[in-house]
């Protein structure tokens, strides 16, 4: 049975600089990078290539010693120009200078009827060596899926409610067949259901509409209604001992193309957005692209922060940095390292607040007002004060403040009992945004997860 | 402003790690962030933008909500004085204000100074930031004491409240009891003669007119339970319902006027800083308990119309400013209803049944502060059970 679920709790952060539905195809990043740090839980990355090697799109670059069969592959063909290492020779970035025309490693391709007959083992082997496997994320813990698991269900969120998020339907236009093939492959991995979750308040894109044999659910409500973790909580919650997989629609299409075309196709549309971007729009490139070409001459001022991903869950990168493996957007906002005289009490209208405390009048602006927010923390670290707002932005039957306190006190039993299996960082990112005490909630969530994983 | 900021920034290295005045870093930090919002930016990972609120602003919202009560309290202190000595003028006169300010403002200053010093000492010794929570406590304490209180008692009570109510538990956010109520309870038990009886009107050595008793409405009402008679007629014109509601009666500085407390409540609820659930449920609980007593009707006090309870004494002030303290209240939404209703019921129970304490809200809030974690425990337990019930292993 497909479900319709209306959520009320949450908060939409409406930022200026939304990418318009236009694809710029004149600008192309020249270098690409694989960053082991993009893969949460990767413990001991082992490099398979050296500087100077030539690779094709789909050539394995590295793998995690803890999961030796899953390859992390080059998104493009070209030359390995640099392996950037940090302290203790930790691999930070493997940089690849892309060829003008991309050559692909060739993998087995299948006709639609062959795919039906394909066994899980064959499909899995091809996915693991070709670079598409890291698209599959396991819940609990939000790490790359373990190939030996059979998940109880697979969840795909077909919409993204994060601030300035790329429009998933737009980025996948024309990928109907790839998406369908991907779903057919994923069906081999679970005896349970595949849930594809749509936005109730928008038309279902034709990329998704015709997919059969899966559950089509609809969600409405403010962010985080589009978070797959929230959706899982309402459809089929994760209990202790359960394994559930999540895949992004992009990942599904990529898996589909691996089988229908026999190649690891890392091309993707990336939204370049944010208040400081002159023309916010989409760019056609590959995963892990360098951002320097995308921002050159396209930024309104110099004092900005580049974010791989969105402003809630993204990561700050440098001007010569690279987008993360999973990122489909680059957000550029003003850097907020400025002080304000009596900034803690002055009335403000143009700053956004979930609260309506003294002098914060953003609630008077209406829902459609677009804000320019900078990276200032708007306050300093303070003791944990439970104001009850965490619960108001978390549309789940979870008490975030109590969960976080249990994590801080390393109280294993309570961390587990209060629902750590059901959340990853992004699900509580809004708590971090609204927190009056300015704590790193997402970091705490990850600590809690590690507590349970290593416990 | 730029100049001032640069000046501050120049001093900063002295207070940072390795600097000469490293010990006083948090004092410097408190001063600096008070003047200028800090230039700190989001970390590399995690949210890149933050809500415009911070703890300072949240606490200031509460202080702002109390200002109507403070101003009313200043006028009322003067007004009660002039009524008592038989020179009553209109309420909003300069005379009333000046007289009130003369007695009220020193209490506010002493409370802030004493508490501020303790905060500062603890910030230095315990190496934690100075907490803005004190902005609220420092204002609450003056509003719940009579204008006649000796200043040294204000200082002592504040020190006791901050130390025993908060710092020994680890500071803001970790205290079990409401700090201001702890101070009030300390005064009540340590110096009962200065905070009960006929202390509510600042006479300033003038002789009161004949018939002046200085009693509060609660005391008058309580006397009827032994002396007999009808409470409403015993309260008479002085303590008519409208006078009680407006607050034109003797009592603690800020808590006599239900009207201005409700204005504060409106600010707290509109800004979302105070929980409307707690405020509503305290009033509801008090009314229910009053109605139960009406039904029992054993003595005249029990027969007093239940709505009188809502405007007498400090119940309204306690409901709005004390019970809603986010740290010491129940933290779960379900818990807040239970917590509030019990505070309301207990307040009236203590008022009517206990002969020793004419005012019940103080003890009710403190008692429920202690029970709030227990209420939360059961609400959370229910959440855990729901989660466990659907698990198979």
From TrEMBL, chain A:
Residue intervals of the NqrA second alpha/beta domain: 118-263
E.C. code: 7.2.1.1
Keyword Transport appears in the UniProt entry: yes
**Could you tell me the gene encoding this protein?**
nqrA
Q: What does this protein do?
A: NQR complex catalyzes the reduction of ubiquinone-1 to ubiquinol by two successive reactions, coupled with the transport of Na(+) ions from the cytoplasm to the periplasm. NqrA to NqrE are probably involved in the second step, the conversion of ubisemiquinone to ubiquinol.
Q: How does it assemble?
A: Composed of six subunits; NqrA, NqrB, NqrC, NqrD, NqrE and NqrF.
Q: Which sequence ranges are marked TM in the entry?
A: none
Alphabetical list of Pfam families matching this protein: NQRA_2nd (PF24836), NQRA_N (PF05896), NQRA_SLBB (PF11973)
Family, per the entry?
A: Belongs to the NqrA family.
> Which superkingdom heads the taxonomic lineage of this protein's source?
Bacteria
Q: What protein name applies here?
A: Na(+)-translocating NADH-quinone reductase subunit A
Domain Na(+)-translocating NADH-quinone reductase subunit A C-terminal per the UniProt entry, residue ranges: 270-318
The reaction(s) annotated as catalysed by this protein in its Swiss-Prot or TrEMBL entry are: a ubiquinone + n Na(+)(in) + NADH + H(+) = a ubiquinol + n Na(+)(out) + NAD(+)
The record ties this protein, via HAMAP family, to:
NqrA
Q: Which keywords, in A-to-Z order, does the entry hold?
A: Ion transport, NAD, Sodium, Sodium transport, Translocase, Transport, Ubiquinone
From TrEMBL, chain B:
What Enzyme Commission number(s) appear in the record? 7.2.1.1
| Gene Ontology cellular component list | plasma membrane
User: Is Ubl conjugation one of the keywords?
Assistant: no
Name the needed cofactors. FMN
Q: Quick check: keyword Acyltransferase in the entry? A: no
Q: Name one GO molecular function term.
A: FMN binding
One protein family per Pfam: NQR2_RnfD_RnfE
Q: InterPro entries given for it?
A: NqrB, NqrB/RnfD
For membrane topology, the record states:
Multi-pass membrane protein
Q: What is this protein called?
A: Na(+)-translocating NADH-quinone reductase subunit B
> Which gene is annotated as encoding this protein in its UniProt record?
nqrB
